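Question (not urgent): is this output format expected?
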Amino acid sequence: MKGRAIAYTQKELDWIKARCDQPRKDLHAAFQKRFDRNDVTVDSIKALCTRKGWKSGRTGQFVKGQAPMNKGKKMPFNANSARTQFKKGQLPHNHKGLGHERICPKDGYVTMIVAERNPWTGAATRPVLKHRWLWEKINGPVPDGHFLKCLDGDKTNCDPANWELLPQAILPRLAGGRHGKGYAEYEPELRPTVLAIAKLEHQVRESKNAQPLRPTVE
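Got this back:
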């Protein structure tokens, strides 16, 4: 009767405990066959095992080497789902193929897809910064500790002549702040002078840092 605790004999409890690793439906079916207890349902068996802490040992996760139940089975044909399935050789609508370009909304640089192996995914193509890729085709790889500076301020102008290799240590002098206005804040005709001054100041600083320390005379 619903709401009333179900009483089990010690023999029944011992029998259930010894087989608690079975699926609850199988355990219930075997219990009914063995003891003919029509007042005990599958939920009753589940509740009893939960109260007693008799766990089945299953987590619901696939274990290594376990084959899925539908392995080798072909999905039944359904006309509605077939209309939305990918066909062999079909590409998704958002596929970005070879030569595709986009402007990164975060920093304004142009990225493009080139026919080079992607070292992270193994794909036959990979995305690159267009200005750097074109510059390196002419001048070789950008060395460590250096970067490419956009000269006219237009990052979408990927002509290698519009990008100059500079040491990263010069960045603070071009970013503004305590050094004054940033490079891009000056008028286009003044930017070559700003860059030349930044280079000169950087060279002076590097020369001072390279000078050996004089011994202290006591």
